[in-house]
């Protein structure tokens, strides 16, 4: 039995690992000639780390995961602490720590774990066809690949998703722009073992530790879509958007390198069904593109892979196993997309009264409420 896997990102590589555990041959095709991930880093919460352990790649998380032991919210302008608490109770309850990691390092290590020479780069999917015998992928360079089934992990702009749905699926602009990158840890900006967030006026500045003495940072600003962008004005732009904010935020802006700072207009896709058509299944962002507001994009893809492997372990019937995968994942990924969308609206001031009420809640929060929400999301995964 042979699977064609489209995409060598987190979803595609984890799918290959899961299917390989079941003795299924995998051929992996990646559109780009060289992996250059969008986004500097990724927050892999405990459910995603459990999946990496299950798939045999836990050491990667051990090596790359930053020492994130506390969480804090601060008022953006004054820098006054709204709440601060330990993540230890969460780790104890769910049985694994969260691991913020460099996205580039994570993808590179996953590809190396599989075998870089076994991934075919420069293969951009152009069309999909299938019959009772299998699936054919046609690539932009005119080449084709044939297998018994396809796992399409070809991202938020998925060609396979359009094939499966029978029409082009439109992405929804979430209403804000995100700037992100990496800087060397500086404790005058934030503690080295804490996820620190400054919030005010529907904007957010986040600082999170990853391995190798680096902070992953991002700035969120509600803005209209399609505004011109220029790397040469990144610092000036951020200084304008965060004028009057606390001194640590100003230090962070001064520390960033515009040449390695990403600017992304954040989108998601309305939940849809099914995730499977015959012998073609969507996985990761192709099946459930979400905003990053609850940090579950990567974790959901890893969960997909674990469930996919379980379904093939239970059945040698390809279409039956893929239906099993669809049925097991549909409600879970819908819940994650909508939960992230709701959090996005509250965080980014869609309803200012609701956002201000959230700020008031934070000032009275001892961590119990936030940890409870995180725990519920984590424990809803396939590995508990």
Automatic annotation (TrEMBL):
<dbReference type="GO" id="GO:0019628">
    <property type="term" value="P:urate catabolic process"/>
</dbReference>
<feature type="domain" description="FAD-binding">
    <location>
        <begin position="2"/>
        <end position="337"/>
    </location>
</feature>
<keyword id="KW-0520">NAD</keyword>
<keyword id="KW-0659">Purine metabolism</keyword>
<comment type="similarity">
    <text>Belongs to the FAD-dependent urate hydroxylase family.</text>
</comment>
<keyword id="KW-0285">Flavoprotein</keyword>
<keyword id="KW-0274">FAD</keyword>
<dbReference type="InterPro" id="IPR036188">
    <property type="entry name" value="FAD/NAD-bd_sf"/>
</dbReference>
<dbReference type="InterPro" id="IPR002938">
    <property type="entry name" value="FAD-bd"/>
</dbReference>
<dbReference type="GO" id="GO:0004846">
    <property type="term" value="F:urate oxidase activity"/>
</dbReference>
<dbReference type="GO" id="GO:0006144">
    <property type="term" value="P:purine nucleobase metabolic process"/>
</dbReference>
<dbReference type="Pfam" id="PF01494">
    <property type="entry name" value="FAD_binding_3"/>
</dbReference>
<dbReference type="GO" id="GO:0102099">
    <property type="term" value="F:FAD-dependent urate hydroxylase activity"/>
</dbReference>
<dbReference type="InterPro" id="IPR047712">
    <property type="entry name" value="HpxO"/>
</dbReference>
<keyword id="KW-0503">Monooxygenase</keyword>
<dbReference type="GO" id="GO:0071949">
    <property type="term" value="F:FAD binding"/>
</dbReference>
<keyword id="KW-0560">Oxidoreductase</keyword>
<comment type="pathway">
    <text>Purine metabolism; urate degradation.</text>
</comment>
<protein>
    <recommendedName>
        <fullName>FAD-dependent urate hydroxylase</fullName>
        <ecNumber>1.14.13.113</ecNumber>
    </recommendedName>
</protein>
<dbReference type="InterPro" id="IPR050493">
    <property type="entry name" value="FAD-dep_Monooxygenase_BioMet"/>
</dbReference>
